[in-house]
Specification:
single chain; about 350 residues; alpha/beta; Methyltransferase, Methionine Synthase (B12-binding Domains), Chain A, domain 1; Globin-like; 3 domains; binds cobalamin
Length: about 350
């Protein structure tokens, strides 16, 4: 015999709910996480609010715990997968017949922060869009092929990390040339979506709710010349991108010479140092591409805090920037950007 135990309705503002949900995803407890979101939904909380006020903010905490070195990358991945499972469970019980139009939702090439845009996709679906969700890292040419095959009314393009902006630009230009307007979103597009505008996106929205209302009220946007924003980047940007492998190889050698502590690094530490150097070069390239040094200085601030949390001594990043700078002495914009970064340390 099943015993029915009544419980007071679960509410999003219940004290301790977000901590409890964070603990569940942190333990990779799919059953528990699904149980919380379905109980909330059963108790009358709209799916949109559960996504926007519980699943999304919890994911930000997950990433921050990784950045603070409190959670390993494996634990973060397990937590992210658990959050995705909870989101999917919620989506499965909220079917809405498509009535608005068709929209392709994708992350730009090399962008792996998939959960934010997955939330956007579900929010659009709940608002009556037929959504083609392409997920993380969609190479531009494949995106365009998909558009030709499906003929959507809009493309929603996500970029959470600014190093992907040159690729975002190529994708935006290609979509618009195919006659399909683009709404951009995600932190990588900068404060207030400043970079989305520079790159020629038709619209930008800060979050899924704003995107839903923008697409419901003022879409399609008035047509514009797709070529207007087609070319950015100059010889400095091109040099940095073309010479990335040498910048890294020479940079690692110079780093070893200038920072003797590296001699005792194991393979894993060497790999992550190389990866960090790759980020230095990629953020520099993105800052040059858009002529926005803040892209680089914000990266430096954040990396300094991540390295500090991992007990990497602070001179390491300074030396890392210096060894890249010493290879770019003929490139005044790159030098100025690197100096701006160094002055942040
Ligand atoms: C979680 C997280 C991760 C996880 C990602 C797990 C995953 N598979 O998704 C892990 C730990 C793996 C990770 C890795 C990295 N990350 Co990270 N990460 C975060 C973090 C903490 C939260 C992002 C998140 O999911 N938030 C939850 C969502 C739901 O919140 P939201 O962003 O408000 O969501 C809304 C908007 O984004 C918007 N939106 C998103 N896409 C779109 C698209 C459209 C069209 C529209 C309209 C709206 C829209 O709608 C969403 C819903 O409302 C952010 C910092 C932060 N607090 O945002 C850094 C952050 C995005 N990461 C950052 C970095 C640098 C990295 C790494 C390079 C770190 C490293 N050194 O390895 C790697 C790169 C990975 C890669 N190649 O993509 C930087 C990016 C800096 C920048 N702007 O360029 C950030 C901003 C951290 C920082 N510096 O403060 N990261």
């Amino acid at each position: 015999m099943t015993v029915f135990t009544p419980h007071p309705p679960l509410r999003l503002d219940d004290p301790g709910l977000s901590e409890a949900f964070l603990r569940l995803v942190g333990d990779g407890d799919e059953f528990g996480a699904v149980e919380v979101v379905t109980a909330l939904h059963d108790d009358g909380v709209p799916a949109q609010r559960i996504m926007m006020e519980l699943i999304g903010p919890t994911q930000s905490r997950v990433g921050e715990l990784w950045a603070a070195n409190e959670w390993t990358i494996a634990r973060e991945h397990a937590a992210t997968a658990t959050a995705e499972r909870a989101l999917a469970a919620l989506a499965a019980r909220t079917q809405v017949r498509p009535a608005r139009g068709r929209i392709t939702v994708a992350c730009v090439d090399g962008e792996w922060h998939a959960l934010p845009v997955r939330i956007l996709a579900e929010m659009l679906r709940l608002d009556g869009w037929r959504v083609d969700f392409l997920g993380p890292s969609v190479p531009g040419p494949h995106l365009v092929t998909h558009l030709h095959q499906t003929g959507p009314d809009a493309v929603a393009l996500s970029c959470m990390i600014s190093t992907r902006l040159p690729r975002a630009h190529a994708a935006i230009t290609a979509c618009r040339s195919a006659g399909i307007p683009v709404i951009a979103g995600g932190r990588g597009f900068g404060p207030g979506g400043r970079y989305a505008q520079i790159l020629g996106a038709d619209a930008w929205a800060a979050g899924a709710e704003e995107a839903v209302s923008r697409l419901a009220s003022s879409w399609p946007p008035p047509p514009r010349d797709p070529q207007v924003h087609a070319y950015l980047g100059d010889d400095e940007y091109t040099h940095v991108v073309r010479h990335r492998p040498e910048l890294l190889t020479n940079g690692m050698k110079a780093l070893l010479a200038a920072y003797p502590a590296m001699a005792s690094y194991d393979d894993r530490q060497m790999d992550s140092t190389l990866e960090d150097m790759g980020h230095v070069v990629d953020f520099l390239a993105a800052a040059l591409y858009l002529t926005e040094p803040t892209i680089f200085t914000e990266f430096v601030d954040w990396t300094a805090s991540v390295l500090k949390a991992r007990n990497v001594p602070s001179p390491a990043l300074r030396v890392g920037l210096q060894v890249v700078r010493d290879q770019l002495t003929d490139y005044p914009r790159a030098l100025a950007t690197l100096h701006a970064g160094l002055s942040h340390l």
